[in-house]
Amino acid sequence: MSALIIAIDGPSAAGKSTLAKRLAKDLGFTYLDTGAMYRALALKVLSEGTDISTEAALPELINRTEIDLVETGGQPKVLLDGKDVSDKIRTPEVSQMASKTSALKVVRHWMLGLQRALGQRGNVVAEGRDIGTVVFPAAEVKIYLNASVEERARRRVDELRKAGRQVSLDETLREMGERDKRDSERDLAPLRKADDAVAIDSTALDAEALARRVMQEIRKKPLVN
Ligand code: DC
User: Fold this and answer.
1) Could you tell me the pTM of the whole model?
2) Which of 205, 192, 215 is nearest to 141 (CA)?
3) Residue partners of 83: CB distance under 8 A and separation at least 6
4) For atom 9 of ligand 1, which residue has the closest CA?
5) Which residues have any ligand 1 atom within 6 Å of their CB?
6) Among 9, 34, 37, 38, which is best to mutate for testing ligand 1, by the most ligand atoms less than 8 A from CB?
7) DSSP label at 14?
8) I need a surface site. Which of 2, 57, 62, 178 has the fewest CB within 10 A?
9) pLDDT tens, 29-81?
C-alpha cells in the first residue's frame, strides 16, 4: 500500500501546527512542517544578509544549505546545516523573511523537491500553504483551515508571549495581514483552498474539538482508520 497523505493548508496561526502535530501523533504518521523549512532558509538569509531583491544570490546559497525535519524525543525539530534551529525560526523577523523568500521561484522549486522526498518517508501529515494544491495534489485527505483574523492574531500573540517575546496585538495583526496578503497574492503556488479540500473554520473550536472534526473527515477514507 502506498503512503497516505493528509494535507493541511491555511493562513498563519489558523491552528495548522497544533492540529497537524496531534493528528501525526494519534495516527503514528510523520509530521511535515513545510513552513519550518521556509523559515530555516529565511534564518540563513537573515544571518548572512543575503540580498533577495533579485534571485541572483540564491542558487549559490541553496547549494550549500541542508534542511531536514527530524523527531527528537517525540518533538519535531528542524535542522539547518545539521543544527537544531527550531526555536530560532519562530520570530516575527523570520516569519516576514520566510514569506518573502518563499515567493521566489528558485526557492519554491528547491523546496518542492525536498518536501516530496520527505513525503517518501511513509504516511505523513503535511502542513503549509500549497500542500493540497501543489506539493501533494493527490493527498487522500485535504483540509483548508481558517479562523477569523482577530482570533489568529490573538493566538499568535499568546504563542510569542509564551516564548518570552513582548509583542503587541496591533503590530501582530498588521504583520499577519501583510504576510497573508503576500502569501495569497504571489504568482507561484499561492495560498488557496484546493477544490477538493474540506474547509474548516477553527475560530470557535478548541484543539480537541478541531481534531475530532478532522478525524471525522479522515475516517471517511477507507484506508485510514
Ligand atoms: O506556516 P508558517 O507560518 O511557518 O510559514 C512561514 C512562511 O513560509 C509563510 O508565510 C509562507 C511560507 N510557506 C509557503 O510559502 N509554503 C508552504 N507550504 C509553507 C510555508
Assistant:
1) 0.96
2) 215
3) none
4) 99
5) 12, 34-35, 38-39, 95, 98-99, 102, 128-131, 179, 183
6) 38
7) S
8) 2
9) 999 999 999 999 999 999 999 999 999 999 999 999 999 999 998 899 999 99
